[in-house]
């Protein structure tokens, strides 16, 4: 099987008449040993690819004959076939060779189950799995971690054994959040990495193009198949002035979200540049890139500079810093006079701290307007909980600056008025802030240090202080604040801001407090203003690595057994989806017409459902339960068109599947924004869905739908959304002539009335092959036979 698959991969690599030489793949897999600086301390026999990247880039330069942006340099230097690849921003589909793959434990389960199905014996590129999503915040770090290890033992054992068998590195539970681990150990300037998490762009803080994908994309790269990406446009953000005072790096991305909105970055890379860049720390740049996911960006990127070099040296990678400096002008910075598709100007001298929310990360409030806006909109002014940390803001610098605010307050005899939760980003951060007394400051301040994991940011929070349905406010330094995301309470108003602002607001306990202008009352009754935060960018004593939480794969996994119990409720081996019949999809039922925002959280909720991420049938019981039904403005209540009875969405979908009724779902703008979770595509496919018809898609989700054999279609005329009713019958016609760029004919039947509309798609020839085969994985196997 594996040998046949290699032949299939050569076919997949076709670009017009060109077929990639198998020796080129072997050359790729060796990671170009011309440079003898190791990719990481865990990849001592794999070397930095700068020489190879530079040679590829020279081929592209000679073809394009124009100045290149930094994003283009990094991306095009990873082309599988730079001499023949069509390159048009916003149009071409690029075939790329990423340097590595990273997966978190919730998405890794399905990705590895798909990889197992491929029949390959070992991953083709350096790959890692990080256990960070399955740890629920309850009482505090050590106890929560112990509880998670017990509850998730079956899943952790599966991931560990699969990593050992197929050659992946395994980061145990408690090691930290995937993106912080990547920044500390694996990211480097010029890297191209894909990760099965939407906040993978965090690595842009170290000058890498790190892109969030679904698990099926990760399988392609691990199977040595070129990874496909629509050539992104490039949005430039020119930073002038300097970060200072209460303004933080987080405020840059909160402002960009205000400007671009949650879909303004779709199909584009956000490239930061300008003199203001040098006033931002490496981890601050990572914060900005991380939250670029909230504007729909493919990824975000900063140019290599001294702040990055300092961070590399502080994390034991001085050799990488030295090597990067050699290629700074050639690969790791933009050419002079390069052109951006859009340009945004931000003056850091005048940038005000921002607090964004509730319910969407692009609803921006400068701190000077937050109180006024909150009163006007009826937001609860009393804050119930403050939370700092997450993959977006859990660096040593973040923690130190927050501790300076806490110490300032305590010097006046006051501390946090509300519960204050702290999530260290990694075991290294936890150990270092504990050694340097920062954890002790938080403890005295009234804080609780949680486990080194995602925790409340992704809904892993056993919150007890409010009842579900109670209207309340929380402030976090997280990245996402969709309805019910943190605590499964749709009435919780979550505001995202900098960790410094969370700390200040936690002291006051109210949204209408502005630390830049307002005074607090000390224990002695005297008024005082909080001092502007300060903290060391990097620890003066160096980082303390803490406990060793990494497991390297053995030299050979041949004798390692991976066992999945057929009776398991957590894991389930995958069965292939059915192929397209070759016939038009006619008279399909509308399962649900979704009203308004529909993120991947709405389609496939996280929180308590995370435990089923490796069991497709069980997790499908959460499909669309958070989406609002257009028919009745209710969640998880739709009419079964076969029986006339009302039921929950998964129940009705299962009934349709059992009765061979094909269905479609209909949605609004930016459908599928948010997390990269491919379960939001797998579940509709598993329960009988054939097409998703919306006004527009978020990038990752659209790709995930294609990978699983669903048709992602958009209204040629957005107003046609109104023509489809819950009782409509939908037909997709002339599918035998489905072709790139050719709209699909759609027939809508409402009783005796029949209307024809056009639906657009972005499928290319390769992706149409996935649809016909039933999924990308099916197509891979077809080519192998």
From TrEMBL:
PANTHER family: ACONITATE HYDRATASE B (PTHR43160), ACONITATE HYDRATASE, MITOCHONDRIAL (PTHR43160:SF3). It comes from Drosophila mojavensis (Fruit fly). Catalyzes the isomerization of citrate to isocitrate via cis-aconitate. It catalyses: citrate = D-threo-isocitrate. It is found in: Mitochondrion. Pfam families: Aconitase (PF00330), Aconitase_C (PF00694). Binds 1 [4Fe-4S] cluster per subunit. Keywords: Iron, Iron-sulfur, Lyase, Metal-binding, Mitochondrion, Transit peptide, Tricarboxylic acid cycle. GO terms for molecular function: 4 iron, 4 sulfur cluster binding; aconitate hydratase activity; metal ion binding. Its cofactor is [4Fe-4S] cluster. GO terms for biological process: tricarboxylic acid cycle. Pathway: Carbohydrate metabolism; tricarboxylic acid cycle; isocitrate from oxaloacetate: step 2/2. The keyword Metal-binding applies. SUPFAM superfamilies: Aconitase iron-sulfur domain (SSF53732), LeuD/IlvD-like (SSF52016). Residues 72-509 form the Aconitase/3-isopropylmalate dehydratase large subunit alpha/beta/alpha domain. Transmembrane segments: none annotated. Belongs to the aconitase/IPM isomerase family. One of its GO terms (cellular component) is mitochondrion. CDD domains: AcnA_Mitochon_Swivel, AcnA_Mitochondrial. This is Aconitate hydratase, mitochondrial. Its EC number is 4.2.1.3.
């Amino acid at each position: 099987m594996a040998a046949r698959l290699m032949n299939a991969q050569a076919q997949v690599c076709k670009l017009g008449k060109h077929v990639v030489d198998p020796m080129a793949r072997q050359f790729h897999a060796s990671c170009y040993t011309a440079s003898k600086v190791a990719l990481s301390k865990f990849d001592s026999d794999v070397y930095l690819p700068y020489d190879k990247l530079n040679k590829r880039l020279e081929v592209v330069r000679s073809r394009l004959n124009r100045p290149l942006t930094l994003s283009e340099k990094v991306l095009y230097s990873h082309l599988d076939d730079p001499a023949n690849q069509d390159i048009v921003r916003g149009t071409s589909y690029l075939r790329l060779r990423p340097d590595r793959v990273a997966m978190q434990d919730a998405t890794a389960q399905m990705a590895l189950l798909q990889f197992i199905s491929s029949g390959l014996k070992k991953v083709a590129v350096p790959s890692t799995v990080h256990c960070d999503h399955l740890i629920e915040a309850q009482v505090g770090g050590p106890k929560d971690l112990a509880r998670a290890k017990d509850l998730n033992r079956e899943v952790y054992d599966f991931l560990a054994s699969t990593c050992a068998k197929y050659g992946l590195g395994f980061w145990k539970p408690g090691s930290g959040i995937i993106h912080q681990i990547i920044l500390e150990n694996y990211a480097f300037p010029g890297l191209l990495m894909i990760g099965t998490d939407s906040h993978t762009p965090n690595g842009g803080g170290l000058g890498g193009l790190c892109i969030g994908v679904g698990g099926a994309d990760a399988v392609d790269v691990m199977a040595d198949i070129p990874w496909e990406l629509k050539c992104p446009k490039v949005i430039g953000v020119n930073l002038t002035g300097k970060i200072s005072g209460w303004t933080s790096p987080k405020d840059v991305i909160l402002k960009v979200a205000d400007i671009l909105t949650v879909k303004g970055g779709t199909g584009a890379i956000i490239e930061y540049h300008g003199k203001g860049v040098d006033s931002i720390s490496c981890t601050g740049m990572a914060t900005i890139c991380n939250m670029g996911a909230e504007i729909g960006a493919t990824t975000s990127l900063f140019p290599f500079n001294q702040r990055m070099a300092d961070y590399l040296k502080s994390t034991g990678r001085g050799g990488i810093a030295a090597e990067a400096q050699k290629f700074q002008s050639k690969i790791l910075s933009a050419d002079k006079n390069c052109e951006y598709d859009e340009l945004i100007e931000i003056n850091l001298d005048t940038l005000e701290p921002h607090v964004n929310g509730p319910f969407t990360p692009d609803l921006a409030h400068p701190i000077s307007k937050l109180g006024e806006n909150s009163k006007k909109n009826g937001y609860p002014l009393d804050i119930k909980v403050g939370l700092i940390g997450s993959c977006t803001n859990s660096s040593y610098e973040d923690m130190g600056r927050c501790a300076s605010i806490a110490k300032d307050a305590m010097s006046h005899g006051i501390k946090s008025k509300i519960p204050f939760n702290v999530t260290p980003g990694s075991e290294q951060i936890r150990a270092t802030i504990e050694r340097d007394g920062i954890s002790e400051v938080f403890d005295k301040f009234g804080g609780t240090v949680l486990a080194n994991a995602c925790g409340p940011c992704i809904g892993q929070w056993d919150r007890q202080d409010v009842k579900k349905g109670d209207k309340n406010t929380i402030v976090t330094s997280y990245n996402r604040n969709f309805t019910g995301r943190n605590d499964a309470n749709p009435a919780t108003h979550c505001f995202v801001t900098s960790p410094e602002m969370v700390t200040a607001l936690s002291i006051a306990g109210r949204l209408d407090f502005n630390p830049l202008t307002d005074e607090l009352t000390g224990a002695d009754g005297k008024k005082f203003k909080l001092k502007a935060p300060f903290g060391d960018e990097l620890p003066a004593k160096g980082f303390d690595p803490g406990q060793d939480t990494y497991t390297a794969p053995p030299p050979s996994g041949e004798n390692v057994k991976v066992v999945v119990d057929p009776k398991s409720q957590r894991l389930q081996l995958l069965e292939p989806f059915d192929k397209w019949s070759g016939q038009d999809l006619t008279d399909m039922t509308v399962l649900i017409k979704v009203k308004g925002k529909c993120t991947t959280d709405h389609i496939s909720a996280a929180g308590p459902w995370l435990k089923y991420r490796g069991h497709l049938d069980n997790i499908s019981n959460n499909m669309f339960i958070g989406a609002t039904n257009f028919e009745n403005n209710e969640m998880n209540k739709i009419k079964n068109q076969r029986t006339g009875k009302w039921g929950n969405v998964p129940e009705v979908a299962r009934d349709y599947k059992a009765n061979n009724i094909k269905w479609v779902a209909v949605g609004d703008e930016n459908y599928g924004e948010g997390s990269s979770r491919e379960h939001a595509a797998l579940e509709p496919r598993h329960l009988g869905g054939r097409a998703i018809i919306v006004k527009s898609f978020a990038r990752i989700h659209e790709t995930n739908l294609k990978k699983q054999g669903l048709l992602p279609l958009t209204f040629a005329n957005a107003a046609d959304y109104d023509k489809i009713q819950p009782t409509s019958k939908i037909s997709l016609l002339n599918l035998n002539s489905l072709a790139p760029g050719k709209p699909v004919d759609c027939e809508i039947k409402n009783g005796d009335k029949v209307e024809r509309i056009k639906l657009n798609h972005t499928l290319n020839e390769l992706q149409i092959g996935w649809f016909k085969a039933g999924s990308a994985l099916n197509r891979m196997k077809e080519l192998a036979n």
